[in-house]
Amino acid sequence: MTKRACSSRRAAHAAVSHIMETRMPSTSQPPKPATIADLKIQRGEGGETHQIAEGDTPVLTTAQGTPVADDQNSLKAGLRGPTLIEDSHFREKIFHFDHERIPERVVHARGYGAHGFFEPYESLSDITAADLFQRAGEKTEVFVRFSTVAGNKGSADLARDVRGFAVKFYTKEGNWDLVGNNIPVFFIQDAIKFPDLIHAAKQEPDRGFPQAQTAHDNFWDFISLSPESINMALWIMSDRTIPRSFRFMEGFGVHTFRFVNAEGKATFVKFHWKPKLGLQSVVWNEAVKTNGADPDFHRRDLWDAIGSGDFPEWELGLQLFDEDFADQFPFDVLDATKIIPEEMVPVRKVGRLVLDRVVDNFFAETEQVAFMTQNVVPGIDFTNDPLLQGRNFSYLDTQLKRLGGPNFTHIPVNAPRCPFAHFQQDGHMAMHNPKGRVNYEPNSFGLGPREDPKRGFKTYPEEVSGTKRRARAELFADHYSQARQFYLSQTEPEQTHIKDAFVFELSKVETPEIRARMVAHLLTVDQALGEKVADGLGLPSVPKPATPARPIIADLPPSPALSIIKNGPKSFEGRKLGVLVTDGTSAKLLKALAKAVEAEGAMVELVAPKVGGVKLDDGTIIPAKQKINGGPSVLYDAVALLPSEDGCALLMKEATARDFVADAFAHAKFIAFAPSAKPLLDKAGAQLDGGMFEIGASGDVKSFLSALGELRFWEREKAVHAV
Ligand code: HDE
Predict the structure, then answer these.
(1) Please, which of 108, 182, 446, 560 could form a disulfide with 147 given CB 3.0 to 4.6 Å?
(2) Predicted confidence (pLDDT) per residue in 345-385, tens digit
(3) Which domain covers residue 350, as residue numbers?
(4) Torsion angle, CA of 278/283/284/285, rounded to 10 degrees?
(5) Which of 649, 664, 532 lies closest to 582, judged by CA?
(6) Which of 395, 402, 413, 414 should be mutated for ligand 1, with most atoms under 8 A from CB?
(7) Angle at 182 between CA 178 and CA 187, to 5 degrees
(8) Which residues line ligand 1 (CB under 6 A)?
(9) Element (H, E) at 327
């Protein structure tokens, strides 16, 4: 985050420290809802067709534009009589309502999108002819949609799940969709297994549950019978699947793609998105509670961040390599269950993605956006990765079902921003058809568009030959080596989280054989991990390790890039401090704390017994953002407890205040506390440790502040978990 962005955010936030100076209520708000005046512009294409009732208020009309006189009562025969079929306004209104829903995405149904731009740091003309990478600093508009995979549209944001990270670049040479995930590998190697994988992951078909979770028999049955999924299984049981925010997660194109330059020379490329604010996840117990406290935690976070001028940013990273590298790499670069470690092929940062505009309408944009892996532009091409090849079929097909016809590119969020011209016509909801007599080419009138062999997209002329057969390349068969490398690349707390996640999920599996079969795979990945999970499950005996189809490469060097903790930001920027206040809280201390935290580029949110606010010890009345039972500590990255003595006595009798403290403690958060809050800590069972900081009336908050950059006090975890 640049200093400039920080200060604009601070201004937009009307920070707590500022509030106290001006004694004004908080204006830390997301963008204002549309006013009636805005609606006129949105609906009436400038308002010209609206009749104005009084002053600036537009007249309500039917969809046909007929002014409506009464929108409160349907047309009846007599005061207490039946409703008449003649009431076309009523019928149109209900008809439209009845058809408001479209099928949700079969996967990635729950998502949240935003607009922004991509800007390259340098010209990449030596490696790709793609127009968006030609000129340093030139902006290309983008739309990004983040998503969970398994849950339905209304499921909770903090499900343990892979996150989609789909980017549509509206380039001058057409739309390029980079439809990625926040994990660089996938469960399966061949698209033909996708329906099985997704069936197994989603609700079991007879009972229709569990929703948005993999902790059930069918999922682990499928995984345990599909060794190719083991690497991904390790990734999904890591904290990658419980990100703190979309803003703090990486993105990956997963497959190996091809860049092709103007001379036709090809380079293999893997795409990475690196968040400017570093990586951060929550802990599992926190995720479970966040889903109850705020099922919209991630979408709210993105909405609030953009609304307050704190624009999320990622750098685009490229791993570039050639055929020679591909030939000597011990895995197949066409196998989407494998990474190329960053330590082997460094990630070259070539540009930045900034999200700076929320959607005007969720349905029109986030719901109707249609990403398609086959949307590539000249200079970018596919490889033969069998997963990518299968996806290239699936994404077009699925849009027809979801959006109801072939004209979904006419929907503004899907339409190219560059000029386009073709002879596709008619069909459901056609918004622009060819004009004039000619709707074909070639034609003898010299009318309409023609192909351009120079500018047009040319497929990379890769030589292909072989026997038609259903089979996989030999190197695809190594399923354990990289799983082991991933596990060994984690810090100790992260390894513990992976072990705990396996124990949690497999404890929900009812069939003992499936539990044991999964443990057998884990023993092959790492003996100690397998034994710990076996012990956590209380298996009667440790099973025999699974036999790998190819000998495992046990000594792959650990890759520090795979750890979240090692790639944390060492800063509290973009995070949120929850401050528990009561009547009589020290104004001086609160102000000092808020000022220091906001200077870091972080937010402060006040939690109080009543949302109306509290009266500080200097008589200032300050509003709260949350009432204590609606603002549990899981919503914050760290907390400060600043009740007065009387306030503390009150909070000690309040279960939700005790939970606030106990959860922050159990989730290894840094805690600052005024001396007056000590009895509440004791009552909540939070013993003093290196992650807790007494901050006095003097307002000395320095040591607390410097600790916050670590985000969590991981040493505490061992002390709070005995099982
Ligand atoms: Fe997708 N995937 N997928 N997927 N996927 C869809 O397309 C599919 C895969 C990803 O925000 C669907 O429009 C197949 C990998 C994202 O709108 C569908 C296979 C990766 C999104 C589909 C995969 C992804 C989707 C459902 C196996 C990461 C959400 C709705 C070969 C690189 C895009 C839709 C959005 C969505 C098919 C595997 C990412 C059915 C057949 C690997 C981020 O077409």
Answers:
(1) 108
(2) 999 999 999 999 999 999 999 999 999 999 999 999 999 99
(3) 111-410
(4) -150
(5) 649
(6) 395
(7) 95
(8) 105-108, 111, 145, 147, 164, 166, 179-181, 186, 191, 194, 254, 336, 369, 371, 387, 390-391, 394-395, 398
(9) helix 323-328
Are 318 and 270 in contact, with CB atoms under 8 Å apart? yes
Return the CATH number at 651: 3.40.50.880
User: Closest residue (by CA) to atom 44 of ligand 1?
Assistant: 395
Q: Tell me the CATH number at 299.
A: 2.40.180.10
Q: Which amino acid is at 331?
A: F
Whole-complex ipTM: 0.98
Strand partners, 143: 115, 168
- In this model, does residue 197 exceed pLDDT 50? yes
CA of 457 to the centre of ligand 1 (A): 24
Distance CA 581, CA 182 (A): 37
Same domain, 132 and 211: yes
Residue with tokens 């500590």: 633
Cα 260 to chain centroid distance, Å, stands at: 30
Size of the chain, expressed as the number of residues it contains: 723
HEC assignment per residue over 282-314: CCHHHHHHHHHHCCCHHHHHHHHHHHCCCCCEE
Could you give the C-alpha distances from 326 to 28, 239, 305, 466, in angstroms and in order? Answer: 51, 30, 41, 19
